[in-house]
## 1
Amino acid sequence: MSLSNAAEAWGGTEEFVALSSVLSGFSVPELEKTGMAGAYAEFVAARVGAGPCRALRAALAGLPRTPESVAELAERLAEEPLDLARSLTCLWYTGCWPGQPGSAPTVLSARAYAEGLVWRALGGHAPGTGRPGFGSWSEAPDGAVR
């Protein structure tokens, strides 16, 4: 699938990132900072096709883009868009596409793994990708309660 087909499936990268923001709980700027939006939009559109992408977009149409909208989102999503929403969220958080039940996940790239939102949610870096410095393990992370 060409990038233009991915853009057609999602309505553009901006729409894809806005939709991903609702699903992930991260802001649009935080998602853009990963540098993975274009690659993810293209991969998912190629993997599932434009139809499911459009169905997910339609389910989210008019939904306020706030964390409180998560419950309403679950109510709006039929089974197919819900599966896509779960897979897309997994992709953003881990850099892996979960695949079909019983199959191994697909790791998109080393960069996708390193840019996974799970590491930001934990306040750190993916193992082997950050440079915290010697002895940093002995200090409490920023924001930790002692």
## 2
Amino acid sequence: MLSSRNRMRRSTDFSHTVRSGARSGRRNLVLYATSRQADLPSAFGFIVSKAIGNAVTRNLVKRRLREIAAQILEEYPRGLSVVVRALPAAGAADFNALAKDFRKAFSTVVSKARPAAPRVEQKGSAE
């Protein structure tokens, strides 16, 4: 389960991440991610619209996505803001299909969102 410090709640946080973040889409979901200050805990936000299905289906999808995010949070505990938008196909997907799409999309957006380490030029290197 995600703790409250790892949940995105303000609409400005959602907007910033979706508008300026790296994006990766899969069959069941779309992920957006931006880097945060390294000392801040990673935060996840979820968008699950009525296009997914009825309330029971939407809540099931949200619970599954939160569980997958909690697993990923162990690997990336700090420095990321992630928004997960569930697509209509997510309502019919099982946990394994959601997890597979989530992990693939996450690895793509993390590589785009993480700033590259600054290159240090070697003194006296021959060119």
## 3
Amino acid sequence: MNSDSDLQIAGDLLEVPHLLRTPREHPATVAEFVGLARSIAADRSQWEHLVRYDATSRWYHRMRTGPGYEVWLLSWVPGQGSGPHDHGRSSGVLTVLDGTLTERTERGTRALRAGAQRVFAPGYVHEVMNDALEPAVSLHVYYPGLTEMPMHTAQHCEARSVPGAVTA
């Protein structure tokens, strides 16, 4: 029986710098974009002082940009919504920071509470609204940066009746 441990054979991995990856300055994968959104969400000091509420339209503020991506902060007072839309050629991560938002797609309707995240690919059609009685704040990461937001008819966000299907 061999008594050598993996550590004895390989050595201390922390002592082998060529095996360690240098942390990226900017995200490049879906997981890293989700991680970026989570890290911003977890640190209220990064976003809370920037939030403004506008009774006439959704308020938004571009918080950060990087190579090919953008991070947006949005506020939603009760009754405000996006209308059915997609994000053109951009993929995205939507994270609710405060309050509750409702997302409608052709698959159904779901409540998104603080901490909830949605990841979507280009062409994903949805409608986001604040159906609650309190304001909400959300964070949006787009890659590549958002250059278009085509609007759709309400039909694209109505759940279709499919035998045996359950909408959430």
## 4
Amino acid sequence: MLPIVTDLVTIVRPLLVTGYGNAVTYGWGPDASRTTVEACVEPNGTGEATGGRDTVTVHIRVFLHPGTEVKATDRIEWNGRTYEIDGEPQRWPDPTGGGEHHVELTATYTAGG
């Protein structure tokens, strides 16, 4: 069972777009697919870089129901911000035997810079 599920997040999956020279890039426009799912979102730290270009980063940890389709190349929309997924989402096994218990990932929002 997940921690307390009190949030809704939107998983944004980009379109693959073929550009000049057959280079494949991600298309984040209005045609990117969006799927809203239940989640538990926890703060996972913040950071700040000052100097010529001040930057603030916010990190979150997201717990999703087993079987939720999410990839490292997706983004997470939550609380009015768009977060980049950090690395591969982890699929945790059920400790009572068989199957998946939950999906867990970390994500980062960056402002400034």
